[in-house]
Amino acid sequence: MAASVSSPCFSSPAPRQQQILSQLKWDGEAPNLKVIIGGPELVEGRLLAASRVLLSNNMETVQRYDLSILESLSAEAPLGVANEVAAFCTIIALCVIALGHFPTKIMDDESLLKQGVSVSTELAIRFGCRRNP
User: Fold this and answer.
1) Which is higher by pLDDT, 8 or 119?
2) Nearest residue to 58 via CA among 82, 75, 22
3) Is pTM beyond 0.90 here?
4) In this predicted model, which residue has the larger pLDDT, 2 or 77?
5) What is the mean pLDDT of residues 83-92?
6) CA distance 9 to 6
7) Higher pLDDT, 116 or 67
8) Would you give the end-to-end CA distance of the chain in angstroms?
9) What are the C-alpha distances in Å from 30 to residues 22, 24, 27, 97?
10) Angle made by CA atoms 123, 70, 91, in degrees to the nearest 5
11) From the centroid of its chain, how far is CA 88?
């Protein structure tokens, strides 16, 4: 389950997908399930690659690419435009869910912005303000 949507691509990955998830440290003996959004990388490469791989319908195409390409935000839709749209919709949904765990009032958010905060905090606050007009 990802982004509160049950899907076989997330709940039952194919063996080759599972192998790639292990290489990305999402699966295996000591998985790293923490992810960073914002900062130097807008989206952590591991999350981007996992989304691209899990949402791909063509593992032959996935196997043509190095993990570094699949992890790269600068790569132009390596697995196709439809896959890229689906991957980013999933990542956006995950961000919305994460923000939902930190509910604040818009007045509180606006007050924080006036005080001056880090760039990543400002981005999160502005996103939250747009989500809850």
Assistant:
1) 119
2) 82
3) no
4) 77
5) 93
6) 9
7) 67
8) 28
9) 9, 11, 7, 25
10) 35
11) 7
Q: What does the DSSP 8-state code read for residue 4?
A: T
Tokens standing for residue 91: 């990542």
- Alpha helix ranges (H) inside the chain: 8-11, 15-23, 45-54, 59-63, 67-70, 81-100, 106-115, 119-131
Query: Could you tell me the pLDDT band of residue 3, with boundaries at 50, 70 and 90?
Result: very low
**Per-residue tokens: 34:** 């923490």
CA-CA distance, 31 to 15, in Å (whole number)? 17
Higher pLDDT among residues 25 and 39, named by residue: 25
Strand partners, 2: 5
SS3 at position 37? strand
| Token code pair at residue 69 | 């390409």
Q: For residue 52, what are its two tokens?
A: 């691209």
